[in-house]
Design brief:
This protein has 16 helices and 14 strands. By secondary structure, the protein is of the alpha/beta class. It has one domain: Aldolase class I (TIM Barrel, Alpha-Beta Barrel), CATH 3.20.20.70. β11, α9 and β12 form a beta-alpha-beta unit. The radius of gyration is 20 Å and the shape is globular. It starts with a helix and ends in a 20-residue tail after the last helix. 53% of the residues are buried. The N terminus is likely disordered. Flavin mononucleotide (FMN) binds next to α14 and α16.
Length: 433
Amino acid sequence: MIYIKSAIVFFRKPVNLSYTHSMMTDRMTMNEKIFDPAVLAGMQLKNRILRSATHEGMSDETGSPTENLKKLYVRLAKGGAGAIITGFAGIQSNGKGHLFGMSMIDSDDLIPAYREIVDAVHEYNTPIIMQIAHCGRQTRSKTTGLQTVAPSALRDAFFSEDMPRELSDEEINELIDNFVKSIVRAKKAGFDGVQLHAAHGYLLSEFLSSHSNRRKDRWGGSTENKYRLIGEIFKRATNVIGDYPILVKLNAYDGRKSGMKPDEAVRIAMMLEASGCAAIEVSCGIVEDGLYSIRGEELPVDAAMEYNFKYKNLPSPVKTIVKPILKRVMKQPKPLLKFNLDSALQIKKAVAIPVIVVGGINNIGDIDDIVANKGIDFVSMCRPFIIEPDIANKFNKGIQSASKCILCNYCTILTEAKPLRCYYGKLPNIGKD
Ligand SMILES: Cc1cc2nc3c(=O)[nH]c(=O)nc-3n(C[C@H](O)[C@H](O)[C@H](O)COP(=O)(O)O)c2cc1C
């Protein structure tokens, strides 16, 4: 049975919703641009395809990385990823996510374990960037043991069991210091740079979006005020460590009425550049949206009923009723592919620093078009690297032109329960209807 399931995964057709071979430009031209060595914020990359930050669930209860995490990064490095951006690492305990096995970078004691990982990845001449984050109100007090915090005391529609506390001025200052301390730790561990997670509704993007930031003080209101927290991180970090690459993953829109829109994201991108940001990765969406930032054909309701904290404890008859309703109500946003490209192009026009685009990029033809024709500096992928950590090599060697990922998003739902892997065909009784 296991073999049959593995065979299904192996032989199923790659999802190729918009791509045809005719879209591929001449292979030689393509290889020259994408697979030529490139420089990103002083880092030497083998190519322009990055592994986007992906929570791996491979750290222990203290947030210290395990041997399995090292093995995964080595596979990605061997597999030809231009650079690896790690899954998000928490900068302080009330900012830890509710996910299984999340990494932390909140203590100097963790530095040696990360150093081992970085050294292993560097053996393959692959830069590795640590993504650092505070989850803000997108976590659970049940798992952190601490009250959730946010720019404003507004209940998150998804994490609705917790009412977050508005951060005080003093706490914001402490938070900035903890971001800076985490950057210093990442540098000490040998990471080639850090990426601030200012996307997907986590704390930094909560500050940037008027949907979640309703403050009337100097941390809210105007774009300048909402940006102040990130600006301060840059200022204080630069004072402490000087010239060290700090990248940012930024939401260009979040699908909320009063939320982030590309016009404001462009202005924020310009502020980031002025602050010394090394590169901007463009994304979208928050958890309340459903899977806006990690789109699939349909919501993985079946997996959610078994593994998501909101649904897994519902009585079976209720699940039977809720499942079809959720499927119908929670439609996945369109387009499914290249859904941040337009906003990345707008940001690219406004800044001179490198721009990276993520989201629904799953084939070499599109990558070629994005880099060679559209002029975006780098692309990044998440799900394609989960199912095939060596996808960059496969593209480079012409073994494969598209990812085998079918965007079922079981990997996303399972982040709460198990370590990262492609779970398609691996979950008993799921995906059968
Ligand atoms: C299992 C999983 C874990 C993720 N973890 C993170 C994360 O730690 N940090 C982050 O910025 N984005 C995270 N993302 C979002 C991805 O980096 C990316 O923005 C999104 O999946 C769209 O890219 P894709 O279409 O190439 O998958 C995660 C996505 C998945 C599927």
